[in-house]
Every structure is written in C-alpha cells, then in structure tokens.
Design a protein that fits this description.
This protein is α+β, with helices and mostly antiparallel strands and 666 residues long. Helix content is 49%, strand content 9%. The chain contains 29 helices and 18 strands. Strands 7-8-14-11-9 form a five-stranded mixed β-sheet.
Amino acid sequence: MTDNAATEPTLNLPEELILMLLNEQTGYFHQVAGWALNCAVAGAVLAELSLRSRIDTDLETLTLLDGTPTGDPAADPILEEIAADPEPHDIQFWVERLAAQADGIIDRTLDRLVKIGIIEHHEGDFWTLSSAFQEGAVQELIKTRVTKAIFTDEIPDPRDIIVISLVDTCGVFRFIFELDEEAEERIAQICRMDLIARSIAAAVEHNIASPLLRRPTLTKKIPAVSLRDLVFNRELREGRLPAAFAVLADKYGPVFELRLPFRQNMIVLAGLKTNEWAHRMGRVHLRSKEYFEGVDKAYGVSRSVHSTDGADHFRFRKSLHTTYARKTLTRRLDDVYDLARAHMATWDVGAAMPAQDMLRLFLNAQTSPLLANIDTQSEIVDALEYKVRVLHVGIVKTMPHFMLKTPSMRRRARVTQQIMDRMQRTHTGGQRAGLHGDVVDAYLALHASDPQFLPESDLALPLGAILMTAMYMGDQIGFALYWLLRNPELYERVTAEADALWAEGDPTEEDFTRDRIDVTHRVLMETLRMSPIVPMSMRTVANSCVVEGYELPVGAQLLIAQTAAHYSEEAFPDPWTFDIDRYAPPRNEHLGRGYAPYGLGTHSCLGTHWADLQMVVNLLMLTRYFKIELDRPYDRLPMDPLPSQSPSNKLKFRLAEQRHELPPSS
C-alpha cells in the first residue's frame, strides 16, 4: 500500500462494516450473534446499492432504479437477484431474503480486505489489522471516522451514518467504546439523520428480533446408534475412525448420538454441512476446556493453549504464529538435512523397523533441535509414552486416572519434567543471542511480557507439547510411506522428484516450488485424507444451538468427526481409492470444508504450513537415500486408533538398499 491516497483502494459498506465489527483482541467480530451479523451485512449491501443509485428505498418500499452491474463482487450478485424479481417488496423482505447469503458476502469481503493489505488472516480463521496498516488509514479507517462522529459535533458522511446505524442495531457499540449518556444520545441522533440508514436499520432490527428466523421452533430427535451397528462396524473394529464415522453418517445422518457403557452420551457431527457449521460457529457455541482439563491437570497447569477459547486462545496463537510459519522452517533447511541424515546414518540396511519406532525417532531427531534447541533422542520414548498415557486418561478416557500413578509412569513423568527444565535452562538471553528464535523462546517471551497471562507454573504443558510434534509427524509420514509402497508407480514418481531436487546438491527454499514437489505434495494430501492422525475433536456445548435441524443442548458432549467427510461420495467420489489426482485441476476436491485433516475453526492446527513442508522434505529424503519396502504385504493398513490415529507397530518398513551415500554434516 502506498502513501499516495489516490492509489488507496475504495472500501464498500460491507467492508467498512466488517472493519468496524472486527475485534483485534479476539481476532474475530465483536459479540454479534450469527443471524444479527447476517442481517447487518445484508443491510450494508443494500445500502451500498442505494448509494450507487441502483436502488431506492424508504421505510416501506425498495425500488430498482438501474440494473447495470457496479463491478463490486459483493453487491452485483444481490443487484442481479433484485433485478430478476418483478414483484415489489419492502426492504424488510430483502434483508430477510439476503441474510441467508451473508456468509458468502463475508467471505468475499474478508478475502478482498486481505488481498488489498488492510487485514491479515491467521490460521484458525482469525483476522487482525495488517502490521503494515497499523500506522495509517485507508481514507481514514472507518473506526476513526465513527469515533469523530460520535464524540464530536462533526456532521458525519452519509456512509458513516449507515455504518453507525447498522452497528447500533447489532448492539455492540458498548464493546467498542466507553459510552456515557451523551454519547448514546449522539448515536441515536446520528441514526435518525439519513432516510436510507433509518429504513435499512429498521428492517435489520426487525429481522434480528424475529425468533422464528433465528431458531426453528421444531427440532428433530437426534438418532441414537444401535449397539449392533457399533459392534459390526468393520472400520471401527479395525481402527479406521474417519471411515467408521462416515459409515454411521450414511445410515443415521450427519448428527447422531453414541450411547457407550459407563460414559456420558456423546453427540457426533459427521458431515459436510456440520463441518461448515463447526468451522464458522464453533467459536460461538462450543468450549474446549472440559476435554483438555485432564491433560492440564496431569501437567500441573491451570490452562493451556488447547483448553482456552476466545481472546485468550487467540493471544496464545498470535505469540506462536511466527515460530510455526513455513518461512521459519525454510530458513533452516540445512539443519533439517543435516539432522535427518545424521539419524539415517544409524540405520542398518536390510533391517525391518516398526513404523512408529522408526519414524517417531527420525522426526524427533529434527523437531527437538528445531523447536526447542535440545537433543532428546535418549529420552523421547519415555516422554511420548507418558504423553500418550495422559491422553488416554485425560482426553479419550479409555483408562482410569490411577494409570498415571504407576511406578513406570511416575518415572516417565520425571523424565518429561527434566526435558522441560533443560529447555528453560538452555534458553537464557545470553545463550540464545544471535540464534534463530524457536517455540520455547516464544513461550518464554510471552511469560516474560505478561506473567499473569502465562505464569511460570503454566509453562510445563506447552513445553511438553513440543515433544508431541515428532509423534504426530512421524506417524503421518508412516501412513504416507505405506500408501506409496502400496502404489509403486507413485513411489517411483516421488523418487524421481527427490533425485531431481538433489541432483546438484541440497535444494534451497527457492527449489521447493509446487511444480517440483507436485506428486509428493499430492501424495501427502491424499494420505491426510485417507489416514489423518487427528480424525476428530471433542468439545462441550456452551451455548445451545441448532445444527441441521437438531438441537444441541447446553452441556452436551460433542464429538466433531470432521474427517468423516473424507469418505463422503459427495466430497470425494470413490473415497476408498487412493487417488492423488483429486487435488489437481479441474477436480480440486480438497477445496471446501470436506477436507479437514488439520481440524476446523479456531483450534485448527497452528503449524499446518510448517508440517506440510517438513513432511514433504522427509518423504523426499527417505526415497532419495533408500529403497524402502513393506516387510510383508498388507491388505488392510494396521492401525492404532487412539489416542490419535497411528500406524500400528505391526507395520514394518525394510530398508532394502541404500540408493545414495549420506554426505557428512555441513
């Protein structure tokens, strides 16, 4: 963005409304209920069309003046719809009708604001004003103009009157400003200044107030899965949870209930539309605290990034964003190569190694130094076994709590604590001077900047969570190797990509273009579809809501089986076939919420882009330096389904031969 105002983009009313409602503390909109926000956005589009002289409206009638497109991607589809309806309607009718399209308008609005550099998009669907924009304003940022209008006697522009009227109908001014009686009266006075603003605000307010539009009066009974359908579900018995939930969804629909012995009933969401709902509305209606408090307790912390929601969760993510960025990893590719090859040098050609043991250690040899600047190879097995036990006890609740107190688990807990103590000892200012910042640095900086937000007593879990990266990425690479070896033609194509990349020495950041790693990347994407390591997430319903016609009551335990959609014929034709062409034009089947290997919404994986690149690099290096075979053929991939989905150690990989010499570390 330049300093020349003449080159600055002109914002439309929906964009100014979104900027006005954006709450940078939470990374989302101020507390506006979904239907209220939809009505306000619809009103903003109609107001934009009125200001562009395409429609005329008063308190009773909306009239088409000119059906000529405006060139505005948010307004033109609405203008076309108005022009196509010959019947006269009032503005209330159009607000109600167009509110259903508000999600698409909001998406296009946010995309454009990101594209022109006014806001930044963060993983988990959070948005903030861009760092480049903090110092200036596009034609005076709308919040500045609204502030002047409310707290001075300046006569506001008609556009500002409309925005103020729409925000007022949403009832969120009290969250944006500290208002006294004089300011509240000034807002009311401004809202009466413009006829267009009054008519649209009245229509929006009426639709917001209508309970029939916000929530159905009749909801369907949630079907309960029969015990027989659980017992005879082959996919469930063999640990393929995404496929298992897809089978149940085919029979029972996208919302159903599991009634398991000795456990509270659990409602399952498993469908394309429920994925969309969870992604958009989960932040409003769901809470993560109950499902992660067992893990927090096991590590002796009061809360963590996993168990927080809202502004606190967003603050955690912002503090870690840079350290988990793809760019951070590309700066250290030489370290990745050296660490990976040093570990490969310990392998014996001809040996058959269990998938979990082989690849978790392989990844930990890289991730502990990269993320925490320490070597944990001698301790990682104990640390991971403790964390897995914690997840069994605290999350999936397949074991009683005393299983964390056995002598072996107490010993492993001490080992884990020793690793975390070492992380802190090696991250003093003097020791870290001039080095790349890592995840431990980010957590310690957050603690130093606000000890109340992240006290020393709460550092144990986030530092311990760093160790889990090796488990998750190692298991995912294990799945990818299995699928490659089951598809020899793809294995040869990945090997060819690896040889081309390393033909003239170690590849640089610029070499990892999409076309040069195309096959490997699509193999990883299809692996993430068929065998995702985190196939579901668990939440508690904090605010009652209706999803697909089913009411989710407050306090209900919710299992969001987001990867059930990976086996939906609607999203992925022939879903049981490993097919990397799904992710190339014109098919592009991964676009949309049907593809959700990294989760949905605010708790989606923060390190998606880092993980994608590191796993691709590792797959390429494995095929570059070794010819790998399955120890024996497997008709069905052996799985460990809990606490995360992992390849069973029954699955073994044999290093049939070494294809290239491992160069010494640089």
